[in-house]
């Protein structure tokens, strides 16, 4: 028996050695080049290779990932990049840091010098990877972290578009109950600010309507999104707005014979008999700008926060068969004021649904407040 | 004779357990199944417009093309290998532990408490404490179904399976509630571990691989050369025999399930602190289920488990590279993986059973 034990131990030890050799050499590369010079990226167009990390699959044809990928395609066309210069990693769950890291490293292995991560949960992993690979530019969508050399984040003023879509919803509702499927609860400023802008748009045309919010606690959960929409419709809501990734709430609205406002991509494609309009992202506006800057050598690791003016956010063409009369004119007026800078949605004193007041007369909320501190609901919002 | 006359209708095909196949025949059958898998996968690839040879080549090179790729492949292998060893302990005594997923998670949760809130102590001490508590966490979670089986003879398959979902939702609760990262401005996530609580890399891969290989040796020796290991296989063969031989079956069941869960718990700790650097809902990520396949394909032999889990990791890592290289939808990559598994697992059926057609003359 002892002999056998020895034999097994021998095998194990040699395995350890073999594995060690396979993974060996140069494991401490990252610590050696510690010269913290500020790197200025200037990448010739032909040398560009762009890695894109997606949480789901663009082939879904609508929703969050599709919209981001459309932006990448728009950038590719505009700058005339070859297909081989884009590497896509799809279905990289953003709650799986190891998978995220593997995907990023595979992009780098393929020679990528720019990485776009499109989902929030990639943030911490991207931060760590940016430190490990100082020669690669990392750009993270929707997060709040950055560094001083090769890692930035990008997002946009989708609340502007939500305000406009609120006008369409407020004019359309008959029951004066408007539902909203929200990915996250009150303490998430991105989602809550979005509901508020939507509700303020509604309030600007319809003082009687109330907004009913249902939280799914997930950015992407097809089932929960369907259930939330169902629950809202059964409570009498006849327009369903949404801040979640799939068109399921719109599909539910169509099934129930009510209306809705889509998000991310133009969801009249998914639910033509229900969707009044959609708040949409034209990510191409950012991707084109960022990559152009990397080519020109002017890219800086700064926070990007574009809006209607930059062409990053908008509402999809109104569904003429469904919208209430006068909708177009009202939206056009509000949009003009936004573009000219006369109106910024979160202007002046705003009343919340628990009787408090936010903001100051003659001022508007700062970007910092909008992105991180909207933890209150506008006065016409009811949370169920 | 009586029976077949009575029913009169014999099914067209029957499955019959075969006598033990010779080693050579088994190997031939397995090789054939792999070839068939590649062939069927190849047809699928041709249909969607790719050259199967280059795609297969990409899978292999995707797992080995660089130092970084090999490291990533081994990183996928670590939790798979450890939890396969864990379930093997239980399977040896024919205790259907489908709960590796939950035990991995519990191990990770117990370890994470120290990584998040007691991380000021010296690095090595902290890691040792996290290790010990992952053993306790996973072990206790494995003990629950064993206790109920011993006491009330509950069905352990369902029991362990359902505990997985409880464990998963405990993470969700912690992430959305008490352990939420205070710096995340309302986004539900658990903070990344402090550097002090991260497992070190040895030769470019997190040190979990050393733990995994040591565990392989320990489990091998335990099952093969110790009295307790022998008792496990006796109980696995027959409870009655075991009782007759004076083996305390219930006590042994509790002990073995604690060990099984404890090993899975180690997988969770190693994944959280070595790879994820945080407690993520994906800490088990299906590994606990894949481990069941690995353990059985390896015929519960720890040495074979090392090989099988390595092959699984190659497939996983290579598929990911294949997906992005050819711009394949990741669903197509999943289909291909599924086809290969289908044939390989199907083969195991034919190793043990065969089809017998309806015989001409009844009453045989």
How would you describe what is shown here?
- The complex is a heterodimer of chains A (about 375) and B (about 375).
- Chain A contains 12 helices and 15 strands.
- In chain A, helix 4 (about 95-110) crosses helix 5 and helix 6 (about 160-170) crosses helix 7.
- The longest helix of chain A is centred in the N-terminal third of the chain and has 22 residues, at about 1-25.
- Chain A is about 40% helix and about 15% strand.
- Chain A is an alpha/beta fold and about 375 residues long.
- Chain B has a two-stranded antiparallel ribbon with strand order 1-4. In chain B, strands 2-3 form a two-stranded antiparallel sheet.
- In chain B, helix 2 packs antiparallel against helix 14 (about 330-350), helix 5 packs parallel to helix 7 and helix 5 crosses helix 12 (about 285-295).
- The longest helix of chain B is centred in the middle third of the chain and has 30 residues, at about 125-150.
- The N and C termini of chain B lie close together (about 5 Å).
- Residues about 1-5 of chain B have low confidence and may be disordered.
């Amino acid at each position: 028996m002892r002999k056998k034990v020895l034999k097994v131990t021998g095998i194990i030890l040699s395995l350890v050695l073999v594995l060690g050799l396979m993974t060996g050499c140069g494991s401490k590369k990252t610590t050696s080049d510690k010269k913290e010079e500020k790197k200025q990226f200037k990448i010739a167009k032909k040398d560009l290779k762009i890695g894109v990390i997606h949480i789901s699959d663009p082939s879904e044809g609508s929703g969050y990932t599709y919209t981001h990928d459309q932006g990448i395609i728009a950038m590719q066309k505009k700058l005339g990049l070859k297909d081989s210069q884009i590497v896509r990693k799809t279905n990289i769950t953003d709650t799986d840091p190891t998978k995220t890291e593997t995907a990023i490293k595979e992009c780098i292995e393929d020679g990528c010098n720019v990485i776009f991560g499109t989902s929030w949960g990639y943030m911490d992993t991207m931060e760590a990877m940016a430190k490990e690979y100082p020669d690669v530019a990392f750009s993270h969508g929707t997060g709040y972290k950055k560094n001083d050399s090769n890692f930035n984040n990008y997002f946009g003023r989708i609340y502007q578009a939500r305000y406009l879509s609120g006008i369409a919803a407020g004019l359309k509702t008959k029951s004066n109950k408007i539902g909203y499927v929200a990915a996250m609860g009150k303490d998430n400023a991105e989602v809550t600010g979005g509901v508020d802008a939507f509700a303020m748009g509604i309030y600007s045309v319809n003082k009687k309507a109330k907004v009913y919010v249902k939280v799914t606690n997930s950015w992407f959960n097809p089932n929960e999104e369907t259930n939330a929409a169902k629950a809202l419709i059964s409570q009498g809501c006849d327009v369903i707005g949404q801040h979640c990734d799939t068109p399921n709430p719109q599909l539910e609205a169509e099934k129930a014979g009510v209306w809705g406002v889509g998000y991310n991509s133009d969801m009249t494609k998914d639910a033509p008999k229900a969707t009044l309009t959609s708040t949409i992202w034209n990510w191409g506006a950012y991707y084109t700008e960022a990559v152009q800057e990397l080519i020109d050598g002017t890219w800086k690791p700064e926070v990007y926060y574009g809006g209607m003016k930059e062409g990053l956010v908008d509402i999809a063409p109104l569904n003429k068969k469904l919208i209430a009369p006068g909708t177009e004119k009202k939206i056009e007026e509000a949009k003009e004021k936004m573009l000219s800078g006369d109106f910024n949605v979160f202007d002046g004193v705003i009343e919340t649904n628990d009787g408090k007041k936010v903001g100051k007369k003659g001022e508007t909320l700062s970007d910092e407040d909008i992105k991180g501190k909207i933890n209150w609901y506008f006065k016409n919002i009811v949370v169920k | 004779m009586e029976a077949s006359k009575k029913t009169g209708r014999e099914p067209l095909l029957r499955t019959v357990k075969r006598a033990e196949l010779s080693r050579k025949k088994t190997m031939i059958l397995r090789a054939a199944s792999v070839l068939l898998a590649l062939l069927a996968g190849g047809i699928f690839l041709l249909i969607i417009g790719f050259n199967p040879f280059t795609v297969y080549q990409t899978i292999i090179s995707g797992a080995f093309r660089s130092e970084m790729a090999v490291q990533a492949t081994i990183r996928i292998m670590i939790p798979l290998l450890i939890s396969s060893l864990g379930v093997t302990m239980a399977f040896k005594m024919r205790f259907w532990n489908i709960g590796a997923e939950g035990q991995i998670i519990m191990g990770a949760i117990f370890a994470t408490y120290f990584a998040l809130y007691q991380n000021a102590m010296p690095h090595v001490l902290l890691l040792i404490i996290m290790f010990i508590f992952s053993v306790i966490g996973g072990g206790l979670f494995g003990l629950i179904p064993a206790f109920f089986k011993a006491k009330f003879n509950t069905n352990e398959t369902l029991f362990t399976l359902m505990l997985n979902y409880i464990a998963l939702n405990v993470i969700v609760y912690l992430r959305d509630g008490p352990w939420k990262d205070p710096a995340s401005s309302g986004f539900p996530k658990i903070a990344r571990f402090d550097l002090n609580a991260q497992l070190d890399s040895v030769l470019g891969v997190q040190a979990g691989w050393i733990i995994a290989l040591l565990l392989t040796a320990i489990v091998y020796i335990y099952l093969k050369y110790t009295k307790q290991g022998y008792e496990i296989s006796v109980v696995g063969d027959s409870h009655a025999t075991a009782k007759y031989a004076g083996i305390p079956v219930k006590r042994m069941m509790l002990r073995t399930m604690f060990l099984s869960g404890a090993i899975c718990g180690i997988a969770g700790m190693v994944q959280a602190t070595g790879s994820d650097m945080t407690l993520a809902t994906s800490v088990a990520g299906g590994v606990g289920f894949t481990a069941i396949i690995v353990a059985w394909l390896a015929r519960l032999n720890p040495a074979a488990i090392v090989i099988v889990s390595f092959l699984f990791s190659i497939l996983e890592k290579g598929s990911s590279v294949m997906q992005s290289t050819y711009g394949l939808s990741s669903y197509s990559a999943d289909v291909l993986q599924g086809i290969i598994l289908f044939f390989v697992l199907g083969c195991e059926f034919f190793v043990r059973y065969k089809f017998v057609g309806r015989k001409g003359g009844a009453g045989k």
